[in-house]
Amino acid sequence: xxxxxxxxxERIRRQSGLAQRVGYALFGAxxxxxxxxxxxxxxxxxxxxxxxxxxxxxxxxxxxxxxGYAIRGAERHEEDSIAQRRRR
Length: 88
Hints:
Layout lengths: L3 H36 L4 H44 L1
Helix pairs in contact: 1-2
């Protein structure tokens, strides 16, 4: 890849994918802590950890998903532009 725009887009796609994995991992950790709390006892610290993980995971996922859709939209737009130029 020698096009700097394509290189930047690919780097952003990788970062977005990593952020999505981190966000889902935080949701998974919150779920595990929730079940630990069910079978033991919900302490204040455990509840705060669960809420913190859910909020952090939600923020990270929201941004990562939007960036992922933006990258796909840019690629779709570029492909459509190329197809229109070929038809002319």
